[in-house]
Amino acid sequence: MLSKNQIKLIKSLETKKNRKREGLFVAEGPKVVGDLLRAGYRPHSIFSTQPRPDAEPITDDELRRISFLQHPQEVLAVFHIPTQPSAIRLQSSTLSLALDGVQDPGNVGTIIRIADWFGISNIYCSPDTADVYNPKVVQATMGSLAHVTITYCDLLPLLYKADVPIYGTLLDGQNIYEQPLSDKGIIVMGNEGNGISPEVRELVTNKLLIPNFNKNCETAESLNVAIATAITCSEFRRKF
C-alpha cells in the first residue's frame, strides 16, 4: 500500500522546482521504464500493478492516484536525475541538435524521439527550453530519453566555439533540398512562436528553409517545430 508520503513525493515531481530539489523524476509505462533501467538510470522506487521482482506492488486505483497519464500503464518509476558534467563540450565529430527556447513539453519529447530515430545522440538545450524531466516530456520520448544525451547550457558560448557548420531553419534561409549538407555540425531549432533568438541567429553559418510547396492558396504560416526537426534530420540523413 502506498503511504501518504510516497504519494506526496511523486505528485510533487510534476513541477521543475521540486524535481530539482529532490533530484528525482517520474517515468511511466513498461517500455519507458524498461529502457531507462537498461540505460543505467538509477531507480529510487518502482511501483507496478503486475508482479515484478524490482517493484512494490500496488493496485490499479493506487496507480491512478499517482499517475500523470490519463490512462496509466501498469508501472510507474521514480528515477534519480543524472548529474550533468561540469565541462560542456560540443561533439564536433558528428551531427547534433540544439534547442533554442523550445518550450512545449510535447515538442521537446518528440524531438528527442526524432533524434533517437535518426541516430543523433546529443541535444544541447538553452536554459529556457522545457525541462526534459517534465513527466510530459519523458512520456513523449517513448523511451528515447534513455538513448540521447541531453545537456542544458548557454548556447552562445557553445556555438561561438564550434568548429563545425551551424545550421538553422530560418525564413530567409536557402531551400534545404538544394543545399550541400554535412554529416558533422549542429542543427539549431528555435522557439515555437519566435523561432531562433537573434543572438543565436547571428552565429548560424548555414541558413536553411523548408519551402512551402502550395503556392496557389492560403496555407499554414509555419510548421510545428517537431515536424520541422523531423524533416530537417531526414534530409541530412538522406544525404549521409
Describe the structure in brief.
By secondary structure, the protein is an alpha/beta fold. It contains nine helices and ten strands.
How confident is the prediction overall: mean pLDDT? 95
Q: Would you tell me the structural class of the helices and strands?
A: alpha/beta
What percent strand? 15-25%
* SS elements, strand count: 10
- Strand line-up in the sheet with most strands: 7-6-5-9-8-10
Task: Please explain how this structure is put together.
Helices cover 32% and strands 22% of the residues. The chain has nine helices and ten strands. The chain has a six-stranded parallel sheet, with helices on one face. It has a four-stranded mixed sheet with strand order 1-4-2-3. The longest helix has 15 residues, at 225-239. It is elongated, with a radius of gyration of 20 Å. The mean pLDDT is 95.
Structural features:
240 residues, alpha/beta, 4-stranded mixed β-sheet, 9 helices, 10 strands
Write the layout of secondary structure elements.
Elements: H1 4-12, H2 16-22, E1 24-28, H3 30-38, E2 43-48, E3 56-57, H4 60-66, E4 75-80, E5 95-100, H5 105-117, E6 122-125, H6 135-141, E7 149-152, H7 155-160, E8 166-175, E9 185-190, H8 198-201, E10 206-209, H9 225-239
Helix pairs in contact: 5-6, 5-9
